[in-house]
Specification:
The chain is α+β, with helices and mostly antiparallel strands. Helices cover 32% and strands 28% of the residues.
Length: 210
């Protein structure tokens, strides 16, 4: 009788535990679920990072456009001394690569620059950043590197197109083979193309001429 009860007790003990196969299967399922959960988390985090980067790029793009607009609407018909005895036109572009230089008003009137005029230079550096460099109108790039500020990163191309008196757009100013072109273009169309393929453009009429 006692041995029978012992067998029954042992039987209940086996039913209350897990076999080795059950443990292995459970661990395998848990591992698969953990991997799936981690992959899902990675997707969510990557999507969030891309969304954050896109929003940050859009904020920087809007800020860059605001600065470009202020600069172009405050353009002045004022030549600039290059420090080598030559005068640069009030507005001109580099022929070989992207570069736009012009005189701008509306700046603070300081003792070192009482007119408030500055020389602005837009360029793209080797890291594909759109860079804005300024000098006081009384300064010279020969003796000063100017004040540089990165406006936008991951830039593929920036295009400035200029409307001439013949109502034709040209990326060069003054237009090639047009030495008698006006000092300032009638209108400027700017296109910014990012490395991800996004492209935006603005048209700036009504250049102020003094």
């Amino acid at each position: 009788m006692f041995s029978g009860r012992g067998k029954v007790a042992l039987g209940f003990g086996r039913q209350g535990g897990f076999s080795l196969i059950e443990v292995v299967v459970s661990i395998g399922l848990l591992s698969i679920m953990s991997v799936m959960a981690y992959q899902a988390l990675e997707v969510v985090m990557a999507t969030n990072d891309r969304s954050h980067d896109t929003m940050s790029q859009q904020v920087n793009l809007r800020r860059a456009w605001a600065i470009i607009q202020r600069d172009l609407l405050h353009m002045r018909n004022r030549p600039f001394s290059d420090g080598l005895g030559q005068l640069e036109r009030p507005y001109e572009t580099d022929v070989s690569e992207f570069g736009v230089r012009f005189s701008r008003g509306g700046g603070p009137m300081l003792a070192s620059n009482p007119s408030g005029l500055t020389r602005v230079y837009y360029s793209i550096d080797d890291s594909r950043n759109l860079v804005r460099t300024t000098w006081a109108i009384t300064a010279s790039p020969r003796y000063s590197d100017g004040n540089s500020r990165t406006l936008l990163s991951n830039v593929d191309e920036v295009i400035f197109e200029h409307l001439s008196e013949e109502n034709e757009y040209s990326e060069n100013w003054p237009p090639l083979n047009s030495p008698l072109a006006p000092m300032l273009p009638k209108m400027i169309r700017v296109v910014i193309i990012l490395e991800n393929g996004d492209s935006t453009s603005r048209l700036f009429p009504g250049v102020i001429v003094e």
